[in-house]
Amino acid sequence: MREWLVAISGGATLAFTAWGLGGVQMWTLHVLLGGGLLTLCSALINVRFSKFPYFSLSNQTLRRLISWPPFWFSFLFLIYLLIGALNPAAEVVRDERGWWVEAVQAPLATWLPTSVRSDYQPMNAWRVLASFTAAFTLIWGLWAGLIHRKAVLLVLWSLLASGALMALVGILQYMTHADAVLWIFPPSNQHFWGSFFYRNQGVAFLNLILVNAGLLFFYHATKARERFRSGGPHFLCILLFAGVATSIGLALSRGGILVASILCLVYLTLLLVFVLRGLEANSSLWMMLIPAVLSILGVAVFVQYVDVDRIEDRFGDVWETIETADEDARAISSQATWEMAQPRLWQGWGAGSFRYIFPMYQRNYPEIFYTRYDKKKGWVGRKAYYYAHNDILQFIAEYGLVGSGLITFTIGSILISLILNIHQAPFAILFLLAGFAASTCHACFDFILNSPAYWMAFVGLLSLSCKLAQLERLRSRV
């Protein structure tokens, strides 16, 4: 019973990431936080009803959790953020003239993690702490509480179904020329997609759904081959994959389309190898060709419904873009972010501090500090950068090498476990690793990891895949 409570709670929380407006509004962030905490509590706490409810800690699930290396790295990172939130070394001051940052005496010590004292809305260290707590408590609960493959697959399918539905909503918004997110919430800019206010984050989330669809396809297709079955849920994965890819193409996000194109090429390559291996094993030719035929039909649907000419116009002259990459605003902001990181390279400026500290370095670059250049007035207007458009460098600037290292060790230990278990589901894990690599590259020129909903889905998908591979290994030993 406790395991299914964990699966339902974790599945609902991951499903909500597709509808939580990216987690950028306070109420959606708090729903994600509540879902993560509920999943962890469901995994660790026994509830018995006799005359009175009786609560006790499950020693078995607790041992399972503390023996998982990513738990310790992520737990230490949350402690790191907490120390920084309690140890502000600067504060945001406001009056009728505007706002600025002033240094203050750090309550603990300057060699410890610090932060910038500011309001929870729009951003401060406590808000970032809430975001990471939501994601990490979710994966802790899923890892400790799920012990059967059916429960893990239920959560993965919950994320896939919810994400595919969000992709469909994005298409419907495009066809109806919607002027509000989900036809209800006024957008902060005109380029939104699905439930995300920023289309690049929305499309990046849909790329995660592509990875999820491909993962489940290869997993179920392998099971069908082992059991000599001609059908299975992997056929549905192909249709969902095609629908999500179509939504990505219509969104016209250059980075998202590039990542999706890489994922589609990797998927088709792995599918070809999968079919050829099936023929070598004397499997049914018809059973092997059905996925290939459906994938080709999916490509045909994509070409029919997506305006390829608009995509070409959106990318423009690719070679010219590459040659002038160092003059691009994102490249310049990345350089300024790296300069921002230098004074506190080890500890960082603190969680949520980027938007407050960055202007001091941004002003050294008129191209990104001002809105435009007027021939008569010179540089005019001011640009506000809330994110660096480079998550990797922003993480280093905010969390330092120590905090960023803890995040790297958390993700890296999950990836190492996946690689060690790759023989359990080689095609599924290879596609997942390709998806991780593509997402990391995307994060180098956008701020997708700063979306709480995306980050939760990202670490949730990795952790669930690792759990599924571990359970497959245990099953093979029986």
Short description:
This protein is mainly α. It has helices at residues 2-16, 26-44, 59-66, 69-85, 125-145, 149-175, 199-226, 234-251, 254-280, 285-305, 308-315, 318-323, 329-341, 354-357, 359-362, 366-369, 391-420, 426-443, 452-477; strands spanning 45-49, 53-57, 88-95, 98-103, 115-117, 372-374, 378-380.
Description:
- This protein has helices at residues 2-16, 26-44, 59-66, 69-85, 125-145, 149-175, 199-226, 234-251, 254-280, 285-305, 308-315, 318-323, 329-341, 354-357, 359-362, 366-369, 391-420, 426-443, 452-477; strands spanning 45-49, 53-57, 88-95, 98-103, 115-117, 372-374, 378-380.
- Residues 322-326 have low confidence and may be disordered.
- The longest helix has 30 residues, at 391-420.
- The two termini are 24 Å apart.
- It is built from 19 helices and seven strands.
- Helices cover 66% and strands 7% of the residues.
- It is mainly alpha-helical and 478 residues long.
- It has a three-stranded mixed sheet with strand order 4-3-5, with no helix packed on it. Strands 1-2 form a two-stranded antiparallel ribbon.
- Helix 2 (26-44) packs parallel to helix 5.
